[in-house]
Amino acid sequence: MNINSLILLGQAGEAEAFMGICFLLFMCGTGIFSIASMGFVIWMVVDCAQNEPKMTDNQTVMWIIIIVFLGIIGAAIYYFVRRPKNRAPTNFS
């Protein structure tokens, strides 16, 4: 082996290490996002089941089905469309 091939091997090792670190960071980020989105979905299902006095039972079941089957998208739809309607504005005066 000459010196040029040893230099190339060293550079390849650095590139592989960098790619490994990038992959590890990507997987950690994906895991954190998955756990956070699952928590958000559970929070919206519980909120829908407990805090919807204006809806009938059929509407509550419909929203729970939407949240469960659409996952994070269904939870976001419920959060922005339905949830503000059942929250009264607070008056701090």
How does this structure look, described?
The protein is an all-alpha fold. It has one domain (3-86). The chain is 78% helix and 0% strand. It has three helices and no strands. It has helices at 3-50, 57-70, 72-82.
Features:
mainly alpha; 3 helices
Q: What's this model, at a glance?
A:
This protein is mainly α and 93 residues long.
Secondary structure layout plus pairing:
Elements: H1 3-50, H2 57-70, H3 72-82
Helix pairs in contact: 1-2, 1-3, 2-3
- Rounded mean pLDDT is 80
Q: What is the percentage of strand-forming residues? A: under 5%
What is the terminal-to-terminal distance? 81 Å
Our count of helices gives 3
| SSE-based structural type | mainly alpha
Q: Write down the domain tally.
A: 1
Radius of gyration: 24 Å
Shape summary: elongated
Stretches where pLDDT falls below 50 for ≥5 residues? none
Strand elements, count: 0
The major pleated sheet works out as: none
How much helix, percentage-wise, in residues?
Answer: over 70%
Order of helices and strands: HHH
